[in-house]
Amino acid sequence: xxxxxxxxxxxxxxxxxxxxxxxxxxxxxxxxxxxxxxxxxxxxxxxxxxxxxxxxxxxxxxxxxxxxxxxxxxxxxxxxxxxxxxxxxxxxxxxxxxxxxxxxxxxxxxxxxxxxxxxxxxxxxxxxxxxxxxxxxxxxxxxxxxxxxxxxxxxxxxxxxxxxxxxxxxxxxxxxxxxxxxxxxxxxxxxxxxxxxxxxxxxxxxxxxxxxxxxxxxxxxxxxxxxxxxxxxxx
Length: 235
Ligand SMILES: N[C@@H](CCC(=O)N[C@@H](CS)C(=O)NCC(=O)O)C(=O)O
Fold this sequence. Notes:
By secondary structure, the chain is of the alpha+beta class.
């Protein structure tokens, strides 16, 4: 595809400014990773709200960009070799933005791969496990009222993962030490979501994880996070 208008999604969510990056999202823990990263980097972008209440993510236009019917997704009109690129999967998008701009990722190879490691830890561990925890704790509690196993399993797994983070953050400001990276941006919205989204702070004993709590506060209070956490605004 050589132009933004060649992407079918743009017929349903037209670009006001086709020269800048287009973000299709909703302010969920996965969605805000990209808006927060874009705000940190300072790359101009246009955000389009994909409403789950309207099943926007199931429309043929959205599926043409992400056949996996999930936010976030982007189109960058200025992709590799100056040609547009469409991408889904928040981890891939974060890596793309970091590589494109040289920001939010260390320059040295060891730092680079360690950052990727922690992004993968979020995408393969924190996201799916916290997501299943939230499903049973908040959204499907009635379905497991007579069977404690799902809650036990995901509560234990969520606490175990929080323990891994606590160990990493015990002596450092951010996941990669002093440097704020896409690893922080990938993970902190999910940890924040345990209390803000699922209201599960007490159930999970979140107060046990002192370093994690201080780090979430540190990340969430950055101006780019305050802005990115609300993008795109819900209806
Ligand atoms: N692995 C994906 C997960 C994305 C994801 O689960 N997005 C959720 C919102 S947080 C979604 O779009 N759900 C809509 C649906 O499943 O229909 C990523 O990191 O981008």
